[in-house]
Amino acid sequence: MPTLSLSSLTVLPCSPLEQIDAAHDVGFDAVGLRIHPALPTDIDVMADASLRRAIERRIARTGLRVLDVDVVRVGPQTDVTAIEPLLGYAASLGAENLVFTSLPRDQYHGYEERECVRNIAELCEAGVRHGVRPIVEFIPFRGIASLPHAVRIAKLVDHPNFAICVDTLHLCRSGGGPAELANVDPRLIASLQLCDAPQPAPEDLPSESRYGRLYPGEGMLPLVEIIRAAPRDVPVSVEVPSMARQTRSPFERAQEAARCARRVLAAARRGA
After folding, report:
1. Mean local confidence (pLDDT), 37-42
2. What does pTM read for this prediction?
3. Which domains are assigned to the chain?
4. Cis (ω within 30 of 0) for the bond into 13?
């Protein structure tokens, strides 16, 4: 069974300490921590030194891996030096990856791609200094919108410290699927974010992505086939933000997410 990580979006809004405790208590191997806020309810961890120290102690006590920290946006005007403190803190946690995305689609201009690629390459080099790998999460409503586009960016960046995070929702909503994933160099795939969704897709993809995902096995995405197409033993992060489950505790959401994910992973392994 691959490494199983609890994504922050599955249990937010909550403290990172609550997330770490929930992941440990229900048997996850790792966590993905939101260190840099992206939503109004996110905690700005980098602005709270006491919280940063508490997270370090809790990770050490539980023995959990930190699969990734998130999330930064990289565009043509990004100041990579401003991201260095985040990389340094990620390194102190033993984090393997820093997840980044591109700008919203209406702000992503093709004529600025050269500057974006330059900044991504600079981020990869900064990651080398800290022992953290930047990984791009392609999202259909952002500039780097699909797996083929992420692969093309990888070729342009041409840096060994660059990789791709494949989210099952974004893969399918961008028109991709198992066959597309199977054709990618496995060395480029750093992690697989697992969730489910109904078909057909809703009109409001951002809202679905942030608040309306289904737990693995509850929807109609070809999860078993995607898992089989992914590199063997690639780490799996369960990312299932769900407004329908907001009244449940972080522990209850983590417990259900782990149970659903393990059932789908077991089905993929049986048929492999």
Report:
1. 87
2. 0.95
3. 4-271 (3.20.20.150)
4. yes
